[in-house]
């Protein structure tokens, strides 16, 4: 029986997922990120160390554990890849080279009530750069380029990255005279959910804002631009604050770097807040064009205190692709397809049971040259063997003979062929993923 | 802090692991196995449905679960990939094409006491072929070829696959007059651990064997051959039984198929029993040459009742590579190396902060042609930038200029280069794994 929140793809969907993961991984490595995989479990106190209570943890218990003995107690499955990464960095700081660039593609688990597009087990693909002491800002500019490159090479809808900087919000709120900037940020973060009128009311009620201050916050949140013009738009609101200036300069650098390397990828979107997360500067969200209503499928930001040993500080910037979430949305809309349900390109037919060694030799010769090949399961009538291929979408059936022939079962075309030389068209060698 | 039984590789080891997994996956697909990933959890009754009690299950509990409500109860992490696969096949039989060939590469968890080379979290790579009704025997012959091909293409020691067939053992024991063949099998399975003298004693004490019967069992277990000669050797022991004949014919077919396609890969080893598992015919174990003392790193067999819906039977044959176990052994013996600790092939130097856009453009041009590239973190002195590359094993440093030059920091050789055309030697493009 399916278990709510624990998705399971059929093999064709898994083929698509693997192709997506291959592209993501290859891109991350092109940018020099090293692979890392951490264990799936962390001590409960590590999982809760960021004061995070919104993500429900699954604890482990051994079935045959003695109730009276202390049993691995307080081990839980990780709910993201950032907390384990921070723990790994502190634990291994002496062995790592900083700045440390790593990617990590793993399952995570959250025991939340499953709802539309939310899973309890899902796959994330993260990149982070972390340094000792200080981390140069240019890494904040690099992140969206890596993500745009990874997802841009896939048959998924175009991605749009929305960027903001918490320093802009906090500086602006402070410059306005609001003191509980965290509460303002959390409230403004609800804009898409509850609309501007209710956000304004909430700001007045819970963050001590006047009507004018609330309106100014909403004006700031409404600013959006795909070039540096947002700086002037903010300035025209007449608020000044040194942190605001710093945030504007940083965001401008992100937007301008993206405009040069990946025009159309990045928008400055001043309503983005990522309310509950521990970001301290740049924040990113990612929308799929035409699927904006499903929300961000990938997000991240700068955290000046990813890890802190007391003696040393490890600031970082990172980005996480919600692979299961993105694919769940696209599969749900039937927006991704694969050309066949098996990797197999050629089925070698079996004229009789006695001839299996000969068919096996043909298959071995084809595989040796990288052509995925199966041999027919039984020496059934050729019509039935062709049906075996057809049902799986295998494009070619190979008939041993004097000479051998190979048939494209889609067109019916059949030609003489030599297993040591024949090559399928490049587009037929592996299953093709299309939008 | 490290948690006993939950291994974590450093990035260079993870690079090796990924290369191993890529080879395994590519090989499985060459043979037409489709990818599958099942959820990590199963209901407890599914996990225990094979009557398996030797593998300790981790149960999940939500941290904030209300003690009084029924909470996802009895969900546990899977301890192998066979039980989830059997469940998946029964659940989706109507949507799958049979015979169904799938591979599955995933973590599994066992809450056992960790000991030398045993993990609580580890990675397995499985292939299985399953059919409705009957499964032709030739699939038993194919399995070792796939595994030999997958592991043979890696810089790991040569693998030797040891094959036996339970029908030989059971038929022989029955032909000898022993009735509790399961108990005999379990006892003989301890041969490598406790030696022949104590096995003989145990057979007499627990399986009702006479001294002569016990000796005959030991004689059978001592038979080993890398060709079909084992058939005569067994016959000379003078025991006859129809099941024995069937087993001998099957094992002969496995050995002869392997001799043709992969000479030296497979040995008939009549002591192999895989005691506690639910196999019904062929059984496989796998040793690494020079690492035999660490035991089998990969095993499998034929199970005539992988799944059974009551109405239908789904026999299968499968093989599981213990990836973590194999790599744990080889890492522990320092037997695998990688040429650098990052994927990066080129570090683009940064003459000054103002020139970052130019260095970024060079990096983008190199990446576009598949060359993993980073830009130096700061405009430090070139000596320090070269040190950044050197510490990570990055072989090339690129100096922007008029013209650009690229330096192989191992040889010191520096040449003019154009980012739109320069190509590193193929052996430098990606990290190289070596034994």
Automatic annotation (TrEMBL), chains A, B:
Keywords: Aminoacyl-tRNA synthetase, ATP-binding, Cytoplasm, Ligase, Nucleotide-binding, Protein biosynthesis. L-histidine binds at residues 80-82, 110, 124, 128, 274, 278-279. It catalyses: tRNA(His) + L-histidine + ATP = L-histidyl-tRNA(His) + AMP + diphosphate + H(+). The keyword Aminoacyl-tRNA synthetase applies. InterPro entries: aa-tRNA-synth_II, aa-tRNA-synth_II/BPL/LPL, Anticodon-bd, Anticodon-bd_dom_sf, His-tRNA-ligase, HisRS-like_core, HisRS/HisZ. It is an enzyme of class 6 (ligase). GO terms for molecular function: ATP binding; histidine-tRNA ligase activity. Homodimer. This is Histidine--tRNA ligase. The lineage of its organism: Bacteria, Bacillati, Actinomycetota, Actinomycetes, Micromonosporales.
